Amino acid sequence: MVYPAQQHVINTFTRLIHLLPPTEKAKPHAILLAGEDTSYRHDTDRELSFRQESNFFYLSGCSVPSSHLLCVYEASTGLSQNPSISLFLHEATISDLMWSPAPPTKEDAKSLFEATSVEYTDKLMDTIQTVAKIPDILFHTLPRGSPKFPVLLEEYTGAILNTDAAISDAYLLTALGRARLTKDAHEIELIERANQISSRAHEVVMRVLGAAVKGKIQREAAAAKGERPLLPGEWLIEKEAEAEAIFVASCRREGSVHQAYLPIVAAASRASTLHYCCNDRDFAWGPVGAHDHKNHNALASSDKDLNPQVLLIDAGCEWDCYASDITRTMPVGNSGKFTPEARAIYELVLEMQKLSMEALRPGIHWDAIQLLCHRTLVRGFQKLGIFLTSESPGSGSWNSEEAILASGVSAAFFPHGVGHSLGMDVHDVPHASKPTNNDTIGNELGHSSFYQYLRLRLPLEEGMVVTVEPGCYFSPHLLASVRDSRHINHEVLKKYESVGGVRIEDVVLITANGHRNLTTVRSDVAWVEGVCSGEL
Ligand code: GLY
Ligand code: MN
Ligand code: MN
């Protein structure tokens, strides 16, 4: 199926015209975009991994480096017969072909992309000059001179400025953001594919952990002595890097070229660092108690055992420029079972996610989901005794659920937002995810700190794709600010601090009546422990 670039161009012109002042709306409009070039590592000739700029891909479906796009809409002919989409490709030279695979020819490209015409870049200047002659035409570009977007050469913008045509970079980015905020069936399919591949990769990591607990991964004797390297299937996961390697390998072998973001693979207390992505530490080891805190067969000849700890993996691959973003938190050590404290926190985060999911539907404001998560966390902490209640000895109404919510203390444990829009980028369309002055903001109940890092602040609409990713963390940096809080039983809190952090993150589509979860890897305690202990 060809990527629906034409519909995306129509969506973008529709949004663009909506944003323009009345005097400009009826004019002819053009969109001129540069695609991403191949880039190189600093002062070398080594290519960096190529990824098309998201807006360029949205309007073209084209991932060929150094392409350009010129779309023209003339109001009088209506949007359904319009606009024209002209794609300009770099024509490969012999030396390009010597070093790199051949890009599509312009003839190939006509069947690969939904473009009205495909030419090589040498025709771009003439075409710009012809389009610039359309009376009253207004060219739109992404912010020029911004390092966030591919460079549109001055020779092209200068050619427009030399004519009577006007050029503006004030509207296109907002129009693209608004258009990209809701997804069509083709985009949903790509996001679903990325989620399925990433879901399997999370499960693969858990199954390798479980196989090790059951002694099913035996290092071949010669390999263990260092006489030959370990073969796939002989690896244990004993450090963050090994978990990352297995996750990425699983995605790569299913054809995904990129991760959608640097994987976050954090064991033990590192799970409290939200964007930990160095992934370079061993799991915590040590002689442990005489009871069952062992990953029995993980290292058959060692006198050390894995400490009971969590392993938080926040990772998702990209499929054809569409992202996934999944977090699972799993038990390591303790025979692949959570400790009682880790299980209690895990179940609380799962409850925050479950109640959030149940509330999802078009019209509900994302702020309300954020508040719901804080309310659920406060209730859960009161049940666990980490927060006091108004009935606690020596307590009073200042420890009611509402009072604790109003104090903002829960933000020390759940400091980030419950989720964000996801699409071509993992934190998708940031400039379209917050209200402009004229839109209504959410209710902002609770405490203003709940909303500080909330990346989406809009009512939900059918077709949006969002992550639902509550978490609960015991970060020494954040706890420092609540060490003297009168809402906290500090003795009880101490018992939980070694859990580090738990986050559970799924990607969901907002449907007409609710939501559909696009993430397929399970997160219920019975399944996660069953797989990580090798029992399932
Ligand atoms: N992986 C980054 C996030 O969950 O937002
Ligand atoms: Mn994530
Ligand atoms: Mn996320």
UniProtKB/TrEMBL annotation:
Q: Which family does it belong to?
A: Belongs to the peptidase M24B family.
* Chain ranges of the Aminopeptidase P N-terminal domain: 3-149
Please report the organism this UniProt entry assigns to the protein: Coniophora puteana (strain RWD-64-598) (Brown rot fungus)
The reply to whether Hydrolase figures as a keyword in the UniProt entry is: yes
What keywords is this UniProt entry annotated with? Hydrolase, Manganese, Metal-binding
Q: Which cofactor does it need?
A: Mn(2+)
What GO MF annotations does this protein's record show? manganese ion binding; metalloaminopeptidase activity
Its domain of life?
Eukaryota
Mind listing the GO biological process terms from this record? Answer: proteolysis
Task: Show the InterPro entries listed in the entry.
Answer: Aminopep_P_N, Creatin/AminoP/Spt16_N, Creatinase/aminopeptidase-like, Pept_M24, Peptidase_M24B_aminopep-P_CS, X-Pro_dipept-like
Keyword Ribonucleoprotein: yes or no? no
Descriptive protein name: Aminopeptidase P N-terminal domain-containing protein
Q: Which Pfam families match?
A: AMP_N, Peptidase_M24
The signal peptide annotation in the UniProt record is none
